[in-house]
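User: Second chain of the day. Same drill as before.
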Amino acid sequence: MRKELRSLYVILLLAIPMVALAHSPAAQPQEEKKQRSEAKYREKLAKEVRHQLVMLPWYSVFDNLAYKMEGDKVILSGQVTRPTLKSDAEGAVKSIEGVASVVNNIEVLPLSPLDDQLRRAVYRAIYGDAGLSRYSVQAVPSIHIIVKNGNVTLEGVVDNETDKNLANLRASGVPNVFSVKNNLVVASDGK
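Assistant: Same format as last time:
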């Protein structure tokens, strides 16, 4: 009996370090580490896609470029005023290492002198306001003005709900604007 207890005690002493080692942080499953590195890689790839889109030479406050990542496929969307910007965006994203394919769903806005006048008028109304002028000092202002057939859509990010409502109010006050759709996102809302 004593011999059995002694052997059980020895087995227990040898098993404790192995159990502790199995539950230590250094022994995390390889799959979990792989998932974390994969997530980091996807995040880095998404940042690079965003960087390439923002750095396009003709990208302006009157264009809206968005993207969605599905694995190594990038889906581009939004609206642009120049057809060349659509193809430039696709080319810039295709050249990124790690991007296997690009689906280009970017809409080219129709040519219209009235829409061009409205773009300028809405720009002056929004960025000429003392409360919103701080958004204009960036390389690409954060409030994008999309005009299609007299209808205005505001896209982008603002600091607070007041700025979102003020931009909507200023755009709505421009003569000859049929409607204003306010898609501005408040930065503190988690985006």
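The domain at 113-189 is CATH 3.30.1340.30 (Histidine-containing Protein; Chain: A;).

User: Great, on to the next one.
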